[in-house]
Amino acid sequence: MRELRLRPLGPVPEIVPGDDLPAHVASLVPDGPGVLVVAQKIVSKAEGRIVALADVRASTEAEKLAAEVEKDPRIVELVLRESRRIVRKAPGVLICETHHGLVCANAGIDQSNAPGADHVVLLPVDPDRSARAIQARLGSGRAVIVSDTFGRPWRQGLVDVAIGVAGLTPILDCTDQVDRAGRPLRVTFMALADQLAAAAGMLMGKAAGHPLIWCEGVTPAGDGALADLLRSPERDLFR
Amino acid sequence: MRELRLRPLGPVPEIVPGDDLPAHVASLVPDGPGVLVVAQKIVSKAEGRIVALADVRASTEAEKLAAEVEKDPRIVELVLRESRRIVRKAPGVLICETHHGLVCANAGIDQSNAPGADHVVLLPVDPDRSARAIQARLGSGRAVIVSDTFGRPWRQGLVDVAIGVAGLTPILDCTDQVDRAGRPLRVTFMALADQLAAAAGMLMGKAAGHPLIWCEGVTPAGDGALADLLRSPERDLFR
Question: CA dist B114 to A50, B145, B163, Å?
Fold first, then answer.
């Protein structure tokens, strides 16, 4: 890779449920190879993954957990519905493993930038499928990453990661490379899709002002999905 | 940020202990504002953080731990010297909290690309100081990040993160932003230095071919250090 250039595409109109997001996106993406990083929020909105909290009835389990972690029981109800399991809990904190296998706070449910103060936005049901629908409109040589903004253990601050992938191998295998001493590299797999998501996150701005970032200079190869980026629970020392 | 452009600088000669890395680097960095991401490996080499394994005598504690995790006792000895504590251990795996406060595998000790098969490279003693020494040669409006390649819990593949910072605030405070509904954003702190390190990692290549990446389009502001990026152990649910 000799140069990498990232820029926001747009303007992107306010996305509402039922919008044909792939069509919107395809009209904005320039010609040539590249990778498009799409903020999860507009994907979720187009797919109608918006819930009015007034419509949510918290279960007894959610009520109990909500009291324990000092959160809105209706939010906790949604978190439980979106999760396979709770990985950690503490006052104000619920770290979950979602049905997709993502480990993140509140199962990715977000109140910021939802349409109205009493609505929340859930993650897409299948972010790979969302990415593939957009990628199909862009054609070959052009990949799509759906990204979201997650916290990390050990480190302060958020970074964006890939939660859906289409049209590129998200993990780059460097096994056949050797270092300058001719020794095979021990560090062999780079999380290319997460690197791209993190880079694009710098240009998105948090107020969803720039939900589409176009990355030129990287020619996507292969294919893959979110599953490639997820460590299996039995090989994970931190859940 | 309207456009972000990243490219490798070079060619960078093979760096050896005692080299004036700041001078080498300053001669390669173009004019104008930007952020330079420097691979940890060349910083460590310039600073003489290379150890011949033949010179390492493993303690009884290191011998015991090495047998448990199936690693070279001399490597484990160095890992223990570089660590405050072991966060997790398993066959083939030692996740450590280094004296800097970084949580990473093997205390950041790396055998790849070391000068000779029986040598390893340790992290810089003070990566912020290393970054500041380079930044001082670049002048104001130009920041320096020393980066290294770490694994993550939950996710496959490696990404680069910042281990030393000079000339920019590594965490971007978005507290004063509101979303489109006028609601204050709940997600408020972005790890800008880690986003830049991750982006630059795509261009470095793993064989240390491109240890200097110049990022244009971001104008560094403020100042800070690695400590800003580290979650305090008492606020961390994963160590």
Answer: 52, 21, 19
Block residue for tokens 């403020």: B222
Q: For residues B215 and B229, what is the distance between their CA atoms, to the nearest angstrom?
A: 20
Q: Is the pLDDT of residue B148 over 90?
A: yes
Interchain pair B202, A4: CB under 8 A: yes
Whether the CB-CB separation of B216 and B4 falls below 8 Å is answered with yes
Residue B239 has a pLDDT of: 87
The closest of A175, A168, A212 to A194, measured between CA atoms, is A168
Does the beta-carbon distance from A178 to B4 stay under 8 Å? no
Q: Does B168 touch chain A (CB under 8 A)?
A: no
| Cis check: omega of the bond before A91, within 30 degrees of 0 | no
d(CA A35, CA A166): 10
- Dihedral sign for Cα atoms in the order B43, B45, B49, B53: positive
Strands (E), B68-211: 83-90, 93-98, 103-105, 119-121, 142-150, 159-166, 172-173, 189-190
Summarised one tens digit per residue, pLDDT across range A107-128 is 999 876 566 668 999 999 999 9
User: pLDDT averaged over consecutive 10-residue blocks of chain A (239 residues)?
Assistant: 94 94 96 97 96 96 98 97 97 96 96 73 98 97 97 96 98 73 69 98 81 96 97 91
Interchain contact B189–A (C-beta under 8 A): yes
Partner residues linked to B5 by β-bridges:
A5, B216
Q: ipTM greater than 0.90, yes or no? A: yes
The percentage of chain B sitting over the pLDDT mark of 90, rounded to a whole number, equals 84
Q: How far is B156 from chain A (nearest CA, A)?
A: 5
Q: Do A181 and B231 touch (CB under 8 A)?
A: no
Distance, C-alpha B21 to centroid of its chain: 16
A202: part of which helix (H) or strand (E)? helix A192-204
User: B49-101, pLDDT tens digit by residue?
Assistant: 999 999 999 999 999 999 999 999 999 999 999 999 999 999 999 999 999 99
Which residue in chain A is spatially nearest to B228 when comparing CA positions? A156
CA distance B120 to A10: 48
Compute the count of residue pairs across chains A and B with CB atoms less than 8 Å apart.
238
Nearest to B230 among A155, A177, A194 (CB): A155
Under an 8 A CB cutoff, do B181 and A116 touch? yes
